[in-house]
Q: What sequence folds into this?
């Protein structure tokens, strides 16, 4: 299974929904809380976006919660999670 990283904030409902989907898939992930301005700046530099969540599966930048769920609905998330 590829490494998964997700940039989040504690109260973001989209972050919670994305983590819930990953949890349902049994995927382990590293969560990076961007309430610290330095971590948010790192996320912004890496993703080119300021919104959370920002999700990487392996080297692929998936995007946010909507994009993660779109992968699931298209049947593309499971193969991506398996590498």
A:
């Amino acid at each position: 299974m590829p490494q998964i990283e997700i940039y989040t904030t504690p109260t973001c409902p989209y972050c919670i929904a994305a983590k819930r989907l990953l949890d349902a898939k049994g995927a382990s992930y590293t969560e990076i809380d961007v309430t610290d301005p330095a971590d948010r700046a790192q996320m912004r530099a890496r993703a080119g976006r300021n919104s959370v969540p920002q999700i990487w599966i392996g080297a692929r930048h998936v995007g946010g919660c909507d994009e993660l769920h779109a992968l699931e609905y298209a049947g593309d998330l499971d193969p991506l999670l398996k590498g």
